[in-house]
């Protein structure tokens, strides 16, 4: 009888800690993007698992996804992500040239955003200000696209 009670308590305890819910320690990330000024082009979403290259060096990202924009919104989902710390950088690539277009002094001409919607002054946000944890089966974040 004690073994049965102990076994049940152990199962309940492990389930509440998430151990039985996700034995692979991997999750999914859904990103809802809002505030596009139009539906032209595509959005490029770069998922970083460290600060190297964040937010604009998409070739250094852990994973990259692109998708169209509809109704000035877009949603992207990354799956099978190992638990850990991440940050997201977003580009509204209106002319489909796969890069951020800037004016003559280097200010962005296209929309951009980052996870946690950090306020940045005179430059891009830091990885630390945009970082978040994935430590469950799924997580949803919202990013507001900005234009200068």
Strand content: 35-45%
> SS-based structural class?
mainly beta
Largest sheet: 5 strands, antiparallel
The tally of structural domains comes to 1
Low-confidence stretches: 4-20
CATH architecture term: Sandwich
Count of individual beta strands? 8
| Anisotropy-based shape | globular
Q: Please give the CATH class.
A: Mainly Beta
CATH topology: Immunoglobulin-like
Tell me the radius of gyration: 19 Å
**Into which percent range does the helicity of residues fall?**
10-25%
Q: How large is the count of helical segments?
A: 2
Spatial separation of the terminal alpha carbons: 68 Å
Mean pLDDT across residues: 89
**SSE series:** HEEEEEEHEE
Describe this structure in words.
With 148 residues, this protein is mainly beta. It has a single domain (24-144), classed as Immunoglobulin-like (Sandwich). The chain contains two helices and eight strands; from the N terminus they run αββββββαββ. It has helices at residues 2-16, 127-130; strands at residues 26-34, 42-48, 63-67, 73-82, 84-93, 112-114, 132-134, 138-144. The strands form two sheets. Strands 2, 3, 5, 6 and 7 form a five-stranded antiparallel β-sheet that branches. It has a three-stranded mixed β-sheet with strand order 4-1-8, with no helix packed on it. The radius of gyration is 19 Å and the shape is globular. It starts with a helix and ends with a strand. The relative contact order is 0.24.
């Amino acid at each position: 009888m004690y073994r049965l009670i102990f076994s049940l308590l152990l199962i309940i305890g492990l389930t509440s800690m998430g151990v039985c819910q996700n034995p692979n320690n991997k999750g999914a990330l859904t990103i809802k993007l809002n505030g596009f000024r139009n539906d032209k082009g595509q959005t490029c979403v770069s998922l970083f698992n460290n600060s190297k290259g964040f937010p604009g060096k998409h070739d250094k990202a852990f994973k990259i996804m692109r998708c169209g924009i509809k109704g000035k919104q877009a949603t992207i989902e990354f799956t099978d992500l190992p638990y850990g710390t991440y940050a997201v950088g977003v580009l509204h690539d209106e002319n489909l040239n796969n890069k951020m277009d800037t004016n003559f002094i280097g200010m962005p001409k296209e929309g951009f955003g980052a996870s946690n919607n950090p306020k940045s002054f005179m430059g891009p946000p830091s990885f630390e200000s945009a970082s978040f944890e994935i430590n469950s089966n799924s997580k949803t974040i919202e990013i507001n696209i900005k234009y200068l």
